[in-house]
Specification:
alpha/beta; six-stranded parallel beta sheet; 31% helix
Length: 374
């Protein structure tokens, strides 16, 4: 017997609350996943795994009553008492840990990127399908306030036919911080292409669909850096839209977060969604009664034609509220009702095909075609 998630029957949680095991309590686990899980009706943070005694103490202080363990294996050993595994671990562990969790009969949420290659992502998707289990990828930037606003403008036709989509995730970090994210070891999947580039490619695919060709430039600019820290992607979508994407840690003057140009108008937006800063500062969605994901009118983007927004061109467009809580709310519904998760492994594989093509393009100095998937 199994419930709608494909896991062994657990009468106490047949309809929730679903008990979550979180593997990893670094930045991703402590700032993003744990607070959002704890804020979601129908989910309860049951177990956190981290080898660091300091982080274990932090988890218990931030989430009273949570169980802490040293290893991922200790979480998976409790499979019969859990309903969902969340992986907030280094990139190179995603495939083996997701495979182990699915094999143990548990639905899985994996932080991006799901895998190193599209082929690995597709094998995980097949395993999840064979076992009737949820497998989803945490692409939280689909719920950024500015991206939600761009998506609404595109879908409403406010821009006319979109011709070029420009998206930047730029930072000024002239000195490397170290750690696996900046490692030059290919096994670590470090560098900005697979980190921030995962978000930007996913957003472009979400808006404009399949990509048929990719041109990329990937550089290592900072002394002592070992992985790409200044990368550009030019994507041509099957529908003719061109997406230009920048990810950089070496940008001394930041460009607009979005510039979207259409046949009728363009939209320009500066600044970053406020949710990450709020989570880092210890705020929690719904905890203090304040609005979540809302930015001041001074940060709104502008929509218009024929003039720069810097000189007052166009009209201010109220930015929709950011909504990271929507991701885990959708996960809880999918667990309860057996529906499609908010981000699928198939979508993650499509993003990885773009990133793989970009890596090859940058290495070979040429445009790389992407063949339609079967």
């Amino acid at each position: 017997m199994s419930d709608s998630t494909g896991t062994p029957d657990r009468p106490a949680t047949a309809r929730g609350p679903f008990r979550v095991g979180l593997i990893g309590y670094g930045l991703a686990g402590s700032v993003f996943h744990a607070p959002l899980i704890a804020a979601t009706d129908g989910l309860v943070l049951d177990t956190v795994s981290t080898a660091s005694p300091e982080r274990q103490a932090q988890a218990r202080a931030e989430h009273p009553g949570v169980r802490t363990v040293d290893t991922a294996e200790a979480v998976l050993a409790r499979a019969a008492e859990l309903d969902l595994i969340v992986l907030a671990t280094p990139n190179k562990t995603h495939v083996p840990l997701a495979t182990a969790a699915l094999t143990a009969g548990l639905p899985v949420v994996v932080d991006k990127p799901l895998a190193a290659t599209a082929a690995e992502a597709e094998r995980l998707a097949a395993l999840a399908d064979d076992r009737g289990l949820l497998l989803s990828v945490f692409q939280n930037r689909r719920w950024d306030n500015d991206f939600r606003t761009v998506r609404a403008l595109v879908e409403d036709g406010a821009l006319g036919d979109v011709q070029r989509f420009e998206s930047r995730f730029e930072r000024w970090r002239p000195r490397p911080k170290g750690g696996w994210r900046e490692s030059g070891d290919p096994a670590e999947l470090g560098g900005l292409l697979y980190d921030l580039g995962s978000h930007l490619a996913d957003q472009a695919l979400t808006l404009f669909g399949p990509v048929v060709s990719v041109y990329a430039e990937a550089d290592v600019r900072r002394p002592g850096a070992a992985a790409d820290d200044d990368t550009f992607l030019a994507l041509t979508h099957a529908n003719g839209v061109r997406s230009h994407l920048w990810v950089s840690a070496t940008t001394a003057q930041l460009g607009p977060r979005f510039r979207v140009l259409g046949s009728a108008a363009g939209y320009v937006k500066y600044g970053l969604d406020p949710q990450e800063a709020a989570l880092r500062a210890g705020r929690r969605p719904g905890a203090d009664g304040a609005e979540w994901g809302v930015e001041p009118a001074s940060a709104w983007g502008r929509l218009g034609a024929g003039e720069s927004p810097v000189t007052g061109g166009g009209a201010a467009v109220p930015t929709l509220p950011g909504d990271y809580p929507a991701y885990y709310a959708a996960i809880a519904r999918a667990l309860r009702d057996g529906g499609v998760p908010p981000v699928t492994a198939t979508e993650a594989a499509a993003t990885l095909r773009v990133l793989e093509a970009a890596r090859r393009s940058a290495a070979e100095g040429r445009t790389v075609r992407i063949e339609p998937s079967a």
